[in-house]
């Protein structure tokens, strides 16, 4: 199944096909991609939702920072664990807080756990995956 291409604009999770969102790897990867790259049309050109993330081509984009590349490689690994770039733990722990939070949230989603509650959230919301 090939999902519809998204031409422009901000990507959100509600735009994603239901069958894709039922796959934990895709759901986790899309949370990270939507949180960090929702407005980056160049990134989305290499994401065939529900099919594959063309990470080799994606990581060649010249405007990406090293931190962006780590997050995109991580997202690719959630969808394609057998064929994805390797990430060092030291690359993950050096991510800025906002980006690390997205990685940790996507990890919780992949593991079907409750999302972490962060210290800077004003109210302790009930955050569930599913």
Topology:
Elements: H1 18-21, H2 24-37, H3 41-44, E1 47-48, E2 52-53, H4 55-58, H5 66-79, H6 89-93, H7 97-110
Can you tell me about this structure?
This protein is mainly alpha-helical. The protein has seven helices and two strands, in the order αααββαααα. It has helices at residues 18-21, 24-37, 41-44, 55-58, 66-79, 89-93, 97-110; strands spanning 47-48, 52-53. It has a two-stranded antiparallel sheet with strand order 1-2. A hairpin with a 3-residue loop joins β1 (47-48) and β2 (52-53). α2 (24-37) packs antiparallel against α5 (66-79), α2 (24-37) runs antiparallel to α7 and α5 (66-79) packs parallel to α7 (97-110).
> Roughly what is the average pLDDT, rounded to an integer?
80
Low-confidence stretches: 1-10
Radius of gyration: 14 Å
Q: SSE string, helix = H, strand = E?
A: HHHEEHHHH
Query: Looking across the biggest beta sheet, what order are the strands in?
Result: 1-2
Query: Using DSSP, what is the number of strands?
Result: 2
Number of helices in the DSSP assignment:
7
Q: What is the approximate shape?
A: globular
């Amino acid at each position: 199944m090939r999902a519809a291409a998204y031409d422009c604009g901000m990507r959100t999770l509600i735009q994603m096909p239901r069958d894709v969102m039922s796959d934990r790897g895709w759901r986790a990867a899309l949370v990270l991609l939507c949180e960090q790259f929702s407005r980056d049309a160049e990134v989305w050109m290499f994401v065939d939702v529900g099919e594959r993330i063309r990470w080799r081509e994606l990581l060649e984009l010249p405007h990406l920072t090293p931190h962006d590349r780590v997050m995109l490689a991580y997202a690719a690994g959630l969808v394609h664990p057998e064929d994805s770039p390797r990430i060092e733990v030291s690359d993950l722990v050096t991510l800025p807080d906002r980006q690390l939070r997205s990685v940790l949230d996507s990890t919780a989603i992949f593991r079907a756990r409750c999302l972490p509650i962060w210290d800077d959230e004003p109210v302790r919301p009930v955050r569930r995956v599913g």
